[in-house]
Specification:
Helix 7 packs parallel to helix 15, helix 8 packs antiparallel against helix 9 and helix 9 runs antiparallel to helix 21. The chain is globular. By secondary structure, the protein is mostly helical. It is built from 22 helices and four strands.
């Protein structure tokens, strides 16, 4: 058995039915206990995104914290991950991705709320928060081992999985596909042929990432606040253009997705016959994309300038809505409409990864030259993946900071930064299958301790939410009375 096959087996075990059931169960539990808060309070959540709280304590604005979280979530998962899920699980995987995201919004809300409620401030005024703190402070010191377990998996996920290798590998793949699709310029290193374009792309990404990472959270926030909204708008507009241009095929695409969710064999011709596979791939790639339940986003949420835990929880849950229900759905529909998930290359081999999405863009935007659609996809994926690298550096450093304590903390963080940068540089030299397997394993291991904490602290989430809603109603009535008095 090869190394790639061993990793694939481990990934299948980690992302087996127990984890899928746990993720969905926690999301459903919170949705019921919070009385469909992700629907009822979504408009208010979007208003809170752009309206900072007066006298809120923290390091960055609520919007800045959301952008750091989105920078880590909007990445290769939205472009490559969706394609991988549909290729492996059929169109039905998109349905389960959306279902998981709906319940994941309640999960992300709870994570953001708990992050602010249990955050701490160190002797330098630096705010620290995340699952390791709400596990330790919310559940008690007897659960500190669980908090440390999460932090260990968080460091590994950032260093070896979702934060570095996967993102840079996605960038180098799309750079190579754009500049050298026929792989005419190759170089042999250590007995293996590598694309020169991919290696140069990896080196450039490493240099730019290093320049931002060394600047810390404030520089990461500044870059994320500019790049994330800008590139998200470009990608959404491109997908909308594709969907409108092929609007007559959308009803059939939805029918294919729904049928594929419950009877994959009917859609795939028996190539993918298990509903469990469609569900597994959809949930796994959905969580990879929006990170609901992983416990990563609350690390950024803890730094927000707010005094209301529930308020930041609402802002946090918009991240899952934007990332998966909007962006991933658009990508998935584009792939299903154009039949990209079943397309083959000139040699008759079924397309994989970013090439699936590239095919969808090329054929869905039929009125544009292929060079233009390829360039748009390359730029979107490159910037999405780049900001994910930055966001996950922040996450994994906070995990390391919790584990390390105050003993020569600055030295440990500096060493970690260099290891993180080295991991980015190594990405083009690893196979795509190994990269995705490592990322899935690390993600799944992070989820277990965080989901256990969310389940045990769900009562705290419900109480905080009720108190916030009562205060918010009172404040709204008071503002209306003031306005009425001023008119009179």
């Amino acid at each position: 058995m090869s190394f790639d096959e061993i990793l694939a087996k481990i990934s299948e075990f980690v992302w087996g039915l127990p984890l899928i059931i746990l993720i969905m169960a926690v999301g459903i539990l919170l949705t019921v206990r919070l009385k469909l808060l992700q629907i009822i309070k979504l408009p208010k959540a979007f208003r809170f995104m752009f309206k900072d709280e007066e006298d809120g304590k923290g390091e960055v604005s609520s919007f800045g914290a959301l952008c750091v979280a989105l920078s880590a979530t909007i990445g290769t998962g939205n472009i490559v991950g969706v394609a991988t899920a549909i290729a492996a699980g059929g169109p039905g995987a998109l349905f389960w991705m959306i279902v998981a995201a709906f319940f994941g919004m309640a999960t992300k809300y709870a994570e953001g709320l708990l992050a602010v409620k249990y955050r701490t401030v160190d002797e330098n005024g630096h705010i620290l928060g995340g699952p390791f703190y709400y596990i330790e402070k919310g559940l008690g010191k007897k659960f500190r081992w669980l908090a440390k377990l999460f932090a260990i998996f968080g460091v590994l996920a950032g260093l070896l999985g979702i934060g570095t290798i996967t993102q840079c590998n996605g960038i180098t793949d799309v750079v190579q596909s754009f500049f050298d699709p026929e792989k005419t310029s190759m170089i042999n290193l250590f007995g293996t042929d590598y694309s020169v374009a991919a290696l140069i792309g990896g080196a450039v990404v490493t240099v730019f990432a290093a320049l931002v990472i060394i600047g810390g959270i404030k520089r990461i926030t500044k870059v994320s606040e500019f790049v994330v909204p800008f590139m998200a708008i470009i990608y959404v507009v491109t997908c909308l253009t594709l969907l409108i241009s092929n609007i007559e095929h959308i009803p059939a695409a939805f029918a294919t997705i729904f049928e594929g969710a419950f009877n994959p064999a009917a859609v795939t011709g028996g190539a993918i016959g298990s509903m469990i596979v469609a569900m597994q791939k959809g949930v796994a790639r959905g969580i990879f994309s929006n990170e609901s339940g992983l416990g990563s986003a609350p690390i950024a949420a803890a730094a927000a300038k707010t005094n209301e835990p529930a308020r930041q929880g609402l802002v946090s849950m918009t991240g899952t809505f934007i990332d998966t229900i909007v962006i991933c759905t658009m990508t998935g529909l584009s792939i299903v409409i154009t039949g990209a998930w079943q397309a083959t290359d000139a040699a008759g081999k079924v397309l994989e990864g970013v090439n699936v999405t590239a095919y969808a863009f090329d054929h869905g935007l039929w009125f544009l030259p292929e060079s233009v659609t390829s360039f748009i996809l390359m730029m979107c994926l490159a910037f999405f993946a780049f900001t994910t690298i930055l966001g996950w550096n922040y996450y994994s450093e906070r995990c390391l900071e919790y584990l390390w304590g105050n003993r020569k903390k600055e030295l440990a963080l500096k060493i970690f930064k260099f290891l993180y940068i080295a991991a980015i540089f190594s990405a083009p030299y690893l196979t795509a299958s190994a990269v995705w397997s490592i990322a899935d394993i690390c993600n799944g291991l992070m989820a277990f301790p965080n989901l256990a904490a969310l389940f045990l602290l769900s009562g705290v989430v419900v109480k905080e939410t009720r108190d916030f809603i009562a205060r918010d109603k009172f404040n709204t009535k008071r503002e209306k009375l003031k306005k009425a008095e001023s008119k009179n």
